């Protein structure tokens, strides 16, 4: 069984991928985390990390 992500995390991640497709790397979570922090304004590290992790997961598959 895998992790279930909230709809808003999926929506934010897909919007960022659609708006900035060349900014993210498929296999590098740390790079994606930095780019998410630059491109979007999050109040918490947890939300930023979950969005970056989902982006990494989408691009890796």
UniProtKB/TrEMBL annotation:
PANTHER family: 40S RIBOSOMAL PROTEIN S17 (PTHR10732:SF0). InterPro entries: Ribosomal_eS17, Ribosomal_eS17_sf. This is 30S ribosomal protein S17e. Keywords: Ribonucleoprotein, Ribosomal protein. One of its GO terms (molecular function) is structural constituent of ribosome. It comes from marine sediment metagenome. NCBIfam families: PRK01151.1 (NF002242). HAMAP family: Ribosomal_eS17. Belongs to the eukaryotic ribosomal protein eS17 family. GO terms for biological process: translation. Pfam families: Ribosomal_S17e. One of its GO terms (cellular component) is ribosome.
């Amino acid at each position: 069984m895998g992790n279930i992500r909230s709809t808003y995390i999926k929506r934010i991640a897909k919007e960022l991928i659609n708006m900035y497709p060349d900014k993210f790397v498929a296999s590098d979570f740390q790079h994606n985390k930095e780019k998410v922090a630059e491109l979007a304004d999050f109040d918490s590290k947890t939300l930023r990390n979950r969005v970056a992790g989902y982006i990494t997961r989408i691009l890796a598959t």
